[in-house]
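Predicting holo structure, zinc ion bound.
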Amino acid sequence: MFILRLITKKDRTNHADFGKILIICLYDSKYIEKGQDLSNISLLYEREALKMQILADLPKIPAFIRNSYQLWMGAQWSKETPHDVFYGTGWIHEVLGRQLARKSCMAHWRDAKVTGNTAQLIEPTTTVLDYTRDIAGELQEFTGADTPYDALIHFQTPGFENPLTAGDLSKIHDFVRDRQVDDPVGDHPNVSVDVQNHIIKCMIDMASINESKVEILYETAHPACLGYGGVEQGVKLGVTHDPHMTPFKSLITNWHEIGHAVYRQSIPYGHFVAGRAMDEAIAFLFEYYIGYSDDFMQMMLDEGLAQCGYDMDMLKRHSTEIVRNTKRIETNPIRHFIDIDLCEQLERALVNEDIEAEDCEVFWARLVEPYADIFPTDYPYYYDVHMMSGIYGDRPCYNPGMLAAMQIGDAKNVTTDNFNDIVMRVAQSGHDRFDTAVKDITGQSLSTEPFFKWMTLKF
Ligand SMILES: [Zn+2]
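Done. Tokens:
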């Protein structure tokens, strides 16, 4: 019956063909365990950790694919949670098809970024999108969400909410236009790798990273953090330096990821982050609320930046500069709201079948048009790596995440002295919904007010 399923299912891609062959080879082998014995929680933890191994360029891709099969098998025996639906959708050969399609899309994306040849992106984007639409459709049916895309957002962040209005975006637009400069101004003295490593080490110590729960990987493709602390070294923290960024930005990006690690290391077994929005909220709390404080900047100066020629005024000027020629994640925390909002609109149109992959360029041109006075002249739609790697529904969490960071910082008077306790309590509260977690921690529903207060104070 199993083989019959495979040959009656119409194929979408060559990847799926390859998947069929492989799964026939694997089916009776020891690689796939019986679903009844699997604990999906452990599998989900394993998957998170493996994603990081890939980023660190460790040869874990076969393990990642095996884990995808395990998840698919585990999800076949019940359809009780959105995770079951998300990982169990499609036929088994499509699990591999999905992985390979995402990998292929990433390869074409890297190439397109260099050559500017966007035509080659259409086919792999279409394939990844088709898989995503199938999952989103099933999730929508399961959760009763308004649209398939909303189902994906709520899968990534249960209890998702975003109080940012069109009026707020227009206020941000005006602020950025008045303040922006085309390119970074002022001095950014060189900071040697040794000094950067020393400062990163100080950040890790300051954050009380628990090395029995967190495995630290050095020189990853970019700083990152994944996994859960409910299992031994279940959290993977990647730290590194980026010569393309200014030393301050490069250092503070590691501090962002250390924030994820502090949150994730304290999550008890069986629990997850309170949605991706809360995961980002804690990381932004580190990067901007704590990272832009005098105490934190003084620590960076004392531990090495002062000897490289920096002073407090330089760091403050630099951290609050709004530079026009920046894209997506590397931009400043103010314009970032607009970048994220447009990403969300593009993803939404694609997943909800309002446009197809070949329409991306035209659709994106229309989206960025009102912001022509604050965006770089060349700002292609494919700059967003999440969409290109098939992670849809995750990007929108960054805006409420930033708002929640400021609201938590404000409500709890977060400082370099008390942040560890506060984050640990958030992690151990057992919250799995973002909206109720925010309300419980801060005593109020999510609002934009603390963010605008912070913006006026710092910028
Ligand atoms: Zn993050």
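The first strand starts at residue 214 and ends at 218.
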